[in-house]
Amino acid sequence: MASKADIRRLIKKGLSGKEAGRLVLQDSWEVDHGREGFLSDSDLQLIKNGLKTPQDIKDYNDLIHTYRLIDYTLMESQIRALTIQVNLRVLSEMTQRYLLDFWIEQKRLMSPVVMTQKQYEEVKAKQREDLLQELHDIWGILDSRARRIAPEGYSEEELEQYVQLAAGQLLELVQAGRLEPTKLQSKDINRLEALEDKLDEWRASKPLEKRRSEKAWAKFEKLHAEKSEFLLQAFQRARAAQAQENLESLRGNLKKVRDGLLALPAGDTTFDYWYSSGEELYATGLPEWIEWIDEYKYNLTNAGFGGIAILINPKPSDLDERGYYVENLFHDISMIRRMEAHYEERGEPSLPERLQVGAEKVEEDVREFLGSLAVIETISRLLKLDFTEDIEKGYKEVKRLVEGYNDLITDTHDKFHYLPEDIELSPIPIAKLKPTSESLRYLRERMAISLGEDWWKEGVLKLTFEQPEEELEGEEEEEAQHG
Predict the structure, then answer these.
(1) Is the predicted pLDDT of residue 284 greater than 90, yes or no?
(2) Cβ(116)–Cβ(314) under 8 Å?
């Protein structure tokens, strides 16, 4: 950089308005950043006094005004960068809360379900009652019987011969009147198929990883409960109106299976909509059904794989009014449920809505920030002065936080889905994002106040942006009108 003496000689020699303005801008930039300037008050006065022509004075004043606009734009971008940083940290914290909640749930699933003795006995009795009412189709009954009588270590290819044996045993029970499977009536079959179609639609619309979400499972359980309730009612109607020819048809088909005349390939409908209740199967004395109904299965009543732990001498504070254990371990440590309750009570957007909107807002703000960056870079090249120092620092910090946020949602996305069902978060492609046309137009018009209408066309960098489709259509119509 030239010495102060050299600069003084240049000033005394005389400068054009643009040269003088650039010199003052460069000095102001240094001073505004806490560094030593190179122009004294007397230098500044000499520069102003040396401007003689109206054009030089205008050029000088325009550049001084440009600096004010640059300063204002940089302050705006700094505020926007800080806003992006705060919002990204909030987004990351909210996402991590869901991740924490997910891991706690995984830990809970692998831990024993804690119960009091009273609770265990009552839950076990309720489960047994439900299993006695549960309906089982003929193919399921045949399959269970075949697997029970097959020797240990059998292969799936060998199972067919045991299905034949099972069909013979089942036939004997039917002929002896100890088992009376029931086929549903046609009108109920149609309704049942419609309910099954709804479940299939749910499965098709939900990727496997998203079926774990609380909201998704609530919908599934509602559909499943509706189907189960209707099936039980349909079974009772069919049992009351069961025709003898139905049983004759069933016995004939069981004989064919027993004799190897009827295999049961995938998709076979021979035994479709034939059911027996758990109570009826229990009464046959078949050991697989005795065990299924009498033995308590904790994973049917409680989600998890850790078994049951009976709590001895529990504290009263650990029990509810029924004498059941109240699980407190890690309960809502992520605070998600408390936050949701708080927002719901106030009628405010839910946590998932805030997360989704927040992610969209961050991307929008990044585009706006990139508009300021593009304009400052263009002005710097146009004036041959570097005004990007502050905005580049802001961009580096924004980029660092964006990359951290992207890592958070992509590293785990393929392994499991821990976010609510209706949230679709995608990485923010900061390297590919472009400013919006609105932000660039606004900043171009601001700088045009001092630099002239077409200032940006003289910039070395072309200001590119992402243009909305409706705007493109409007321009095409305008060109056609003036064509």
Answers:
(1) yes
(2) yes
Question: Containing H/E element for 113?
Answer: strand 113-115
Half-sphere exposure of residue 344: CA atoms within 13 angstroms, side-chain side: 7
**Angle 226-230-236 from CA coordinates, rounded to 5°:** 155
The residue behind tokens 């303005």 is 21
Distance (Å) of CA 432 to CA 20, 166, 365: 39, 64, 14
* pTM score: 0.61
Residue 221 identity (one-letter amino acid): E
SS3 (DSSP) at 321? coil
CA distance 242 to 240: 6
Place of tokens 């900061």: 430
Task: Report residue 98's pLDDT band, with 50, 70 and 90 as the boundaries.
Answer: confident
Give, for 109, the enclosing helix (H) or strand (E). helix 54-110
Q: List all residues 6 or more positions away from 388 whose beta carbon is below 8 Å from its beta carbon.
A: 373, 376, 377, 380
Res 460 pLDDT > 60: no
CA-nearest of 98, 125, 124 to 113 is 124
For strand 113-115 and strand 182-183, is the pairing parallel, antiparallel, or unpaired? unpaired
What pLDDT does residue 116 have?
A: 92
Instruction: Pick the closest to residue 288 from 140, 125, 129, 121 (CA basis).
Output: 140
Q: Give the residue with greater pLDDT, 327 vs 375.
A: 375
- The CA distances from residue 54 to 11, 14, 447, 453, 464, in Å, are 18, 15, 21, 20, 35
pLDDT per residue as tens digits for the range 186-207: 999 999 999 999 888 877 775 5
HSE-CB for 248 with a 13 A CA cutoff: 3
Task: Grade residue 473 by pLDDT with cuts at 50, 70 and 90.
Answer: very low
In order, the DSSP letters of 25-52 are: HHHHHHHHTTS--S--HHHHHHHHHT--
Q: Which residues contact 350 (CB under 8 A, 6 or more apart)?
A: 340, 343, 344
Give me 195's structure tokens: 């309910």
